[in-house]
Amino acid sequence: xxxxxxxxxxxxxxxxxxxxxxxxxxxxxxxxxxxxxxxxxxxxxxxxxxxxxxxxxxxxxxxxxxxxxxxxxxxxxxxxxxxxxxxxxxxxxxxxxxxxxxxxxxxxxxxxxxxxxxxxxxxxxxx
Length: 127
Hints:
- By secondary structure, the chain is mostly helical.
- The chain is built from five helices and no strands.
- The protein has one domain.
- The chain has helices at residues 2-17, 28-47, 57-71, 76-88, 90-126.
- The longest helix has 37 residues, at 90-126.
């Protein structure tokens, strides 16, 4: 009788402590890639577009953001609402960003390994 009671108590405590994302907020698995791409677009805008005096920084940045929203089938309003919600729930924002950062790091590492293997194969063919 004690074991089922402990399991039941654990389930109740776990469900109470877990934060649920509201329906009008992007879930972490969707928000993570959107925010990652938005950060990349912002960095690109600041580092490259800002140096081109013929381009309007705000227009170019907004155009890049719209492309991101289209890519992920969302809109600016939903993104901003979600961003504010995650900002108010720092632990979930941190977990989401940690997950995205780790995924992108693995992706870059795989790309480097693939490039090294291509170079090795090319060098072996030239010998």
